[in-house]
Write a structure and sequence with these properties.
The chain is an alpha+beta fold. It has one domain (31-160): minor pseudopilin epsh fold. The protein has one helix and eight strands. The protein has one helix at 9-60, and strands at 64-69, 82-87, 101-104, 112-115, 121-123, 133-139, 148-152, 158-160. The strands form two sheets. A four-stranded antiparallel β-sheet has the order 3-2-1-5, with helices on one face. The protein is elongated.
């Protein structure tokens, strides 16, 4: 009797065929899951930073700003850049050298697009915002199934979009489906 120490060519070809079939059916689903997880992580990070800014404004009784920044010293209007939170002690709407950064996020992932208000969000000492805002996060392919939004009400409450009608697309506060166009 001879002991077999390997696999035959036929066994290896059958195994490769099974692996190829599994990969072609599973790979598109994995890509979708990765996109959804990346968007969920970014929208959760942004929600946490915004809620932190509101709570800091209430706790410290001082205006607190959230804004995008490319250098962590001045605010911009491009919400795809890193976001910073700081207490606006002198009320000028910009971060001075004596105003420390309280929290920050990283830059939005290159395959995602984040749009928001034209400028910073100011949380007042009461927890309200100077102006309500909507931040929308989309994937670069503009498919509505990946769109997510954060709505900041005049009272300063942060609400994340949800899929209330279970059609696979999140809706905004008015019930309208989010889109990325």
């Amino acid at each position: 009797m001879r002991n077999q120490t390997g696999v035959t060519l036929l066994e290896m070809l059958i195994t490769l065929a099974i692996v190829a079939i599994v990969l072609t059916t599973v790979a598109p689903n994995v890509q979708s899951i990765l996109i959804q997880n990346r968007i969920t992580a970014e929208i959760n990070e942004l929600s946490g930073v915004i809620q932190y800014a509101r709570h800091h404004a209430i706790d410290q009784q001082i205006d607190t700003l959230v804004c995008p920044s490319d250098d962590f010293s001045s605010c911009t209007t491009n919400w795809g850049q890193a976001k910073m939170v700081f207490a606006d002690e002198n009320g000028d709407g910009s971060r001075g050298n004596d105003e420390p950064i309280l929290a920050a996020t990283g830059v939005t992932h290159p395959v995602n697009v984040l749009t928001g208000p034209n400028g910073s969000m100011r949380f007042l000492a009461s927890g309200a915002v100077a102006a309500p805002a909507v931040l929308r996060l989309c994937h670069e392919n503009d498919e509505a199934e990946y769109a997510r939004a954060l709505t900041i009400s005049l009272q300063g409450r942060v609400k994340m979009s949800r899929d209330d009608d279970n059609d696979g697309i999140h809706e905004d506060d008015t019930g309208a489906a989010l889109d990325c166009n």
